[in-house]
């Protein structure tokens, strides 16, 4: 895909239409997506970026009226979650993956640099059972 592209990769939505080969979803289903598109030639633990693209960077994303995502990248959104909460699934997955890759162990202290939404989710995830304590360092811009 070439520019212009409509951005947005952290989203949930309602299925409007499906392709002929789609079996797991139907019109009206509430869904969330994994925006990472790979060739799948290598196991993810070896190279998760094997020929990757991203929904919202390589194809139209969440800010478009409609977007097309392969079935393998679509997941059902639990009924207990709102569509707004569903939009937090991908950034929360990023935070969880960061903790896994950082080898954070139970009882350790974590320092998170950057109080962005993903930084704050890292803090929440690390507090949810792994960390004894954590500290989030960020900058606050003076707008006065």
From TrEMBL:
Any single Gene Ontology cellular-component annotation: cytoplasm
Pfam families reported in the protein's UniProt record: ADH_N
GO MF annotation: an example: zinc ion binding
Keywords annotated in UniProt: Metal-binding, Oxidoreductase, Zinc
Superkingdom of origin organism: Bacteria
GO biological process: butanediol biosynthetic process
Coiled-coil regions listed: none
Domain Alcohol dehydrogenase-like N-terminal: 2-77
Needed cofactors: Zn(2+)
Membership in a protein family: Belongs to the zinc-containing alcohol dehydrogenase family.
Protein name (record): Alcohol dehydrogenase-like N-terminal domain-containing protein
Taxonomic source organism: Weizmannia acidilactici
Top-level taxonomy: Bacteria, Bacillati, Bacillota, Bacilli, Bacillales
């Amino acid at each position: 895909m070439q520019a212009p592209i409509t951005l947005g990769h952290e989203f949930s939505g309602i299925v409007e239409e499906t392709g002929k080969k789609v079996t797991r979803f139907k019109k009206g289903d509430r869904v969330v997506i994994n925006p990472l598109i790979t060739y799948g030639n290598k196991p993810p633990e070896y190279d998760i970026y094997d020929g990757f693209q991203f929904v919202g960077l390589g194809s139209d994303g969440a800010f478009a009226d409609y977007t097309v995502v392969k079935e393998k990248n679509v997941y059902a959104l639990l009924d207990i979650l709102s569509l707004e909460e569903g939009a937090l699934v991908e950034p929360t997955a990023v935070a969880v993956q960061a903790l896994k890759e950082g080898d954070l162990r139970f009882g350790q202290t974590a320092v998170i640099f950057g109080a962005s939404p993903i930084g704050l989710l890292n803090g929440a995830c690390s507090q949810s059972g792994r960390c004894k304590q954590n500290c989030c360092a960020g900058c606050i811009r003076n707008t006065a």
